[in-house]
Batch of 2 targets.
Target 1
Amino acid sequence: MKINVLILPGDGIGAEVTREAVRVLTRVCDKFGHQANLTEGLLGGIAIHKTGGPLPEETVRLALAADATLMGAVGLPEFDNVAPEKRPEKGLLGIRKVLGVYANLRPVKTYKALIDSSPLKNHLVEGTDMIIVRELTGGLYYGTPRGISGEGDQERGVNTMTYTRAEIARISRMAFHLARNRRKKVTSVDKSNVLETSQLWRKVVVEVAAEFPDVQLDHLLVDNCAMQLVLNPRRFDVVVTENMFGDILSDEGAVLAGSIGMLPSASIGDRKPSGAWAGLYEPVHGSAPDIAGQNKANPLGAIGSVAALLEYSFGLKEEAAAVNAAMEAVLNSGRVTADLKPAGAPATTAEVGQAVCEAI
Ligand code: NAD
C-alpha cells in the first residue's frame, strides 16, 4: 500500500518527537511491505520565520495532496505577546480547517508499566482502554450569534450552542464504526435533561444506533460521565460527545494515563479519493520550550499517533498493533524518558525512538 503522509514537525520538541515518529513509520512500512511516500512542510513558528505566516500556501497544497498529516507541535515563546492571528497556533487551527477534520479521537489507555504514575488508585485505573470521540467543528465554540455587547450592568456575553442532524449523525457513525472494531460499546454523553441541542443529539444517536445492531449504546449526562471517568474508567469503550463536553472530558481522560508525553490524538474527516480517511495526527502535548533542544522529550505520544494514523486513515490494524506492542515492550523494559522515570538514568528521545524501532 502507498502511505502518502505529510510531515509537519513544527516547533520546539515537536521537531524532536516527530523525527522519532517518522523513524517508526518508516520502520513499520519496511517491515510490512508498504511504500512510505513522506513529504515535509512548514507549520507554526518555523513557518513564520521562513515564509512570514504560520500556514504557508505550500503547506496547504501538500496537506490536500497527502492522505494523512503527521504533526509535531507548534508554539514559540517569542510569539507569546503577538496578536492571535499572527501566532504559530493559528496555523494549527488553519490546517484542521483545510483538512475538514470533524472528529477528534483521543485514545486513553493505561499501561501496566506506568500504572503508578496515574493519579488514581491502581485497582481503579488498571485495564482502562477507551477512545473519546469529540465533535470538533460545531457546537458552542462555533455557534452564532456570539459576542459581548451593552454596557454597565447590562453588558452581556452570548454564545450559541447549535447542532444539525447531519453533524450529529456523521460523528455518531464514526463512533459506532470505531466501536465495531473494539468492544462494541458506545456511550453517548449529553445534557439532555437541560439542553435542547442535547435532546436532538440523543434522538439522532439513537436513530444511528439502529444501523449498528451489533453495538451496544448507552447514554450518560455529562456531569455523571465526568464522575464515572474517575470512579470506573474501565466501563468505557467508545465515548461520543459534542465539542465542549469533549474538550473537557478528553483532558480529564488524559490525566488517567500519567504523563502528557504519552498521549496521541487523531482528527478525522471524510474519505479521500484514494480510499484513505483524511486525518491529522499529533501528540496532545505542545512544543514544551522548557525542555526543547535537550533530547529529553518523550516521543511516545508522537509514536502512538503513528499507530493511530495507520489504523484510522489506512485501515492497517496489524501494523498499528505492532507499533502499540513495541511501545508497550519499551515501557516494560524501562528505556523511558525522564518524565516517566524521575529517578535513575533516563533514556533520550532518540534512544526511545530507536528502542521502539528495534522492538518492531
Ligand atoms: P506543553 O504541552 O508544551 O508543556 C507542558 C509541560 O509538559 C511542560 O513542562 C513540558 O516540559 C511537559 N511536556 C510536554 N510534552 C512533553 C513530552 N513529550 N515529554 C516530556 N515532557 C513534556 O504546554 P505549554 O507549556 O502550555 O505550551 C507550550 C507551547 O506549546 C505554547 O506555545 C502553546 O501554545 C503550545 N501548544 C501547542 C499545542 C499543539 O501544537 N497542539 C498544544 C498545546 C500547547
Target 2
Amino acid sequence: MILKSKSAVVTGSTSGIGLACARAFAKEGANIVLNGFGKPEDIEAARSGIETEFGVKAAYSPADLTKPAEIEGLIRLAEETYGSVDVLVNNAGVQHVSPIEDFPPEKWEQIISLNLSSAFYTMRAAIPGMKQRGWGRIINTASAHSMVASPFKSAYVAAKHGLVGLSKTAALELATHGITVNCISPGYVWTPLVESQIPDTMKARGMTKDEVINEVLLKAQPTKAFVTIDQVAALAVFLASDAASQITGANMAMDGGWTAQ
Ligand code: NAD
C-alpha cells in the first residue's frame, strides 16, 4: 500500500472522478477528507463505505470551494484530523455551456472561482505543511479543455488553461521540496458533470441527445469511447507514488487521442 499512514484531501469527491480518486487512495491506505455537495445520506454512505471497505479513516467537509474562508477550513480540518495533508487533489469543478454574449456573468465568476481559484487557495493553505515534512503530491484535475478549446465553454476553457499555468508555477516553486504538482487532463468521462451539460448543448447547438453524445462529445475522441473514472483515479494513484517523484509540472492527457489531433 503506497499511501499507508498518509492523508489525502480530494475536493469535489462526493461524485464522479473525485469520489473514484478518494476510493483509490483509500485502497492504498490513505486517510481521506471528502468534500463536495450532495444528499447527506449519499455522502454518509460514501464516507462510511470508504472506512469499512478499506479500513482507513474518512472525514467529510461541506466547504463551498467558491469561498476562500471555507477552503482554509477544509485544509485545517484535514491537518487537525490527521496531522497532515500529504496528497491534495484539486478536482471540484462545474461547467456551463453558452455563447459568450449570453454567458451569465455569475456563471463566469462561479467557474473561475471553483475551477481555478480554489486550487490556488487550497495550495496556499496546504503547502506550508508539505514543505515542513518535505513531501507532498498535488494533483489537479484539468481537462482536454486545458489544451484545446470548444465553442460555448469560455469560462471552463479559460479556467482549465489557467489551472495548468498555476500548476506549472507551483511545480517550479516546490521542485526542491519533495513536492510534485501535476495536472491530469481527461477527455470526456461519463459522470454527472457530462450528463448534465447535454440539455444545454442540445439547446446551444439545436441537436438531439444522441447527436450531442456522438457528434459533439465522442466526435472529439478518436477512440469513440468515454474515459472511465477508475482510469483517471489509477493515474492519480501513480502520480502520488514514489515512482512518479520526477514527474512534476506535467499536464497528462487521458483523452482517447483527442488532443493528438
Ligand atoms: P461531478 O459533477 O461528478 O463532480 C463534481 C464535484 O464537485 C461534486 O462532488 C460536486 O459536489 C463538487 N462541487 C461542485 N461545486 C462545488 C463547490 N462550490 N464546492 C465544493 N465542491 C463542489 O463531475 P466530474 O466529471 O467528476 O468532474 C470532476 C472534475 O473533472 C472537474 O474539475 C471537471 O472539470 C473535470 N473533468 C471532467 C471531465 C468529464 O468528462 N467528466 C473531463 C475533464 C475534466
